[in-house]
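Sample 3 of the quickstart, ligand zinc ion:
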Amino acid sequence: MPTDWNARKMEAFDRALELFKGGKPFVDDLRTAARCELEAYRSSGFVEAVRVIAAGDSCPACRAMNGQILPLEEALASSPLPVHGCTHKMGRRTGWCRCTFVAVVPDP
Ligand SMILES: [Zn+2]
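Result:
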C-alpha cells in the first residue's frame, strides 16, 4: 500500500500544534508536516516545483520567502518550512509559521 502522505502530514501537524500550545519544541514536527506535503507532491509524479505561500499577516521572515519557487528536489533537500526565524505570534507564543507549499505544475 502506498504511503498516505496527507494522513502523515496531518498527524505531524496535530502533534506540532499540541507541542506549540504546551510551550514545547514543535519545529521538528512542523517540518515533518511540510516534508510530507512535498513527499505527496513527489509521489504524484507530475509536480516539478513548489511555490512558498506566506499568510497575509505573516512576519518579515516569512514575507521574504513568499512567492519563492523551488524545484521539488531542492525543497526536499533544504526543507525551508517552517521558515527559520519566524516570529509570528499566536496567543502568547511565537514562531508558528503558517507558510505552505503549493504545487507548480508545468504547462501541458
Ligand atoms: Zn513567520
